[in-house]
Write a structure and sequence with these properties.
It contains 7 helices and 10 strands. It is of the alpha/beta class and about 160 residues long. It comes from Thiomicrorhabdus immobilis.
Length: about 160
């Protein structure tokens, strides 16, 4: 997904990393509409869910969905969200989260999006983000309607 931002550089977003709980799920259950949007938009970017999986439900909830799930509690290769980000290439990644453990992920990603949804948002993560949204559906809209992202980031 190539997006030219007036007065700034051109973005080449190839990956989207989502946190799980508080971002695409609430209390361990995927938020309505999220899996449909991932399936619909999977040809435009690669979706990744990187989680500590507080409720132990992420892999089951996302079974058959067009995204790669990295459970940090079980991963032999990735012990943090930022290590996984580095493996993808931070310069080509938009990351989304709400918790304290998402702060560095958002800060190091090309675009970091903090979400204020039902679970709340850690203030440190808010400060590390480039953009704040009120719903994960707003993030999917950035893919469907890139001019929204352009309008938010332009100089």
């Amino acid at each position: 997904m190539i997006i030219e931002i007036p007065g700034r550089e051109t973005l080449d977003i190839q990956h989207i990393i989502f946190d799980y709980n508080g971002t695409i799920a609430l209390d361990g259950k995927v938020i309505d509409g999220v899996t449909d949007k991932i399936q619909q938009l999977a040809g435009l970017v690669d979706f990744h869910v990187v989680t500590a999986d507080t409720y132990g439900t992420a892999e089951k909830e996302l079974l058959g969905v067009a995204c790669k799930v990295i459970n940090l509690a079980n991963s032999p290769h990735f012990k943090s969200k930022t290590v996984y980000l580095a493996s993808l290439g931070a310069e080509h990644t938009l990351s989304v989260g709400n918790g304290f453990n998402d702060k560095e992920l958002l800060k190091q990603s090309r675009i970091g999006v903090a979400l204020i949804q039902d679970e709340g948002l850690c203030i440190d993560t808010l400060i590390a983000a480039d953009i704040v949204c009120k719903s994960v559906m707003d993030v999917f809209a950035y893919i469907e309607k890139p001019n929204r992202l352009k309008a938010t980031l332009r100089v």
